[in-house]
Amino acid sequence: VSNCFDTGTLAGLRVHITAGPTQEPLDPVRYISNHSSGKMGYALAQAATDAGAAVTLISGPVNLAQPDHVKRISVTTAQEMLSASLANIDDCDIFIACAAVADYRPTAIAEHKIKKGNEEIMELHLVKNPDIVATVASLENKPFTVGFAAETRDVINYARGKLAKKGLDMIVANDVSQAGIGFNSDENAVTLVTANQQTSIPQTSKRQLAVQLIEQIAKHYKTSK
Ligand code: CTP
Ligand code: CA
């Protein structure tokens, strides 16, 4: 597929996408993270590029090749992902938060490897990470902002709650309670939720889903202008 930079649905637009997990260090050899593969975010970066957008991919640590024609910024922690997201935000028309950001990080990073003690129970102290997509959506000159919601129950209600609370234009609700879809898998099924609309996209490959999501995002972006 060639890039239709002049004719695609996102021609001339700048799309920023966060992807993958974040890693929050505990000490020089350990971290807290999650099983996000980054596949959905990378597939979105590819689909947005194919639709003619100039894409910046702000990526946590993943095992994926850099998509062609995409500017990738590699980060490790949520705080780094926030800085990278805000650094070029004035250039951004559409911000898609696909990353599985660690909600909490250790309050302090030990300078040396933490030694095993005699006690059976060990307590970790964690502090809340900044909410990247909510921070972007609260900016005065905010881009069209899209979030993801990974839920195991009451999926649409929780997603609607996040849409409102974070000030998003759209949220992609993802039921991760079903085996074989969502987190760390090749396929996904989602429901796209805006303030007054709801569209289901049945289970398909993340590549196919990304193409459909980008089409829908482009449509809603244009209606919002
Ligand atoms: N998100 C973010 N920064 C965070 C946490 C989440 O940008 N610190 C974004 C995710 O990239 C996603 C959306 O917020 O687009 C929802 O993430 P999710 O983990 O489902 O929601 P939370 O608000 O963290 O709530 P909870 O995990 O308790 O369900
Ligand atoms: Ca979370």
TrEMBL record:
Single GO biological process annotation from the record: coenzyme A biosynthetic process
Entry binding sites for CTP: D103, K113, P130, D131, I132, V133, F148, K162, K166
Keyword terms: Decarboxylase, Flavoprotein, FMN, Ligase, Lyase, Magnesium, Metal-binding, Multifunctional enzyme
Gene Ontology MF terms: FMN binding; metal ion binding; phosphopantothenate--cysteine ligase activity; phosphopantothenoylcysteine decarboxylase activity
GO CC list: phosphopantothenoylcysteine decarboxylase complex
Domain DNA/pantothenate metabolism flavoprotein C-terminal: 10-219
Cofactor note: Binds 1 FMN per subunit.
Pathway connected to this protein: Cofactor biosynthesis; coenzyme A biosynthesis; CoA from (R)-pantothenate: step 2/5; Cofactor biosynthesis; coenzyme A biosynthesis; CoA from (R)-pantothenate: step 3/5
Stretch list, region Phosphopantothenate--cysteine ligase: 15-225
The reaction(s) this protein catalyses: N-[(R)-4-phosphopantothenoyl]-L-cysteine + H(+) = (R)-4'-phosphopantetheine + CO2; (R)-4'-phosphopantothenate + L-cysteine + CTP = N-[(R)-4-phosphopantothenoyl]-L-cysteine + CMP + diphosphate + H(+)
Protein EC: 4.1.1.36, 6.3.2.5
Cofactor: Mg(2+); FMN
Domain of life: Bacteria
Role played: Catalyzes two steps in the biosynthesis of coenzyme A. In the first step cysteine is conjugated to 4'-phosphopantothenate to form 4-phosphopantothenoylcysteine, in the latter compound is decarboxylated to form 4'-phosphopantotheine.
Record-stated family: In the C-terminal section; belongs to the PPC synthetase family. In the N-terminal section; belongs to the HFCD (homo-oligomeric flavin containing Cys decarboxylase) superfamily.
The protein's name: Coenzyme A biosynthesis bifunctional protein CoaBC
Annotated organism of origin: Neptunomonas concharum
Source lineage: Bacteria, Pseudomonadati, Pseudomonadota, Gammaproteobacteria, Oceanospirillales
Part of the intact protein present: 177 to 401 of 401
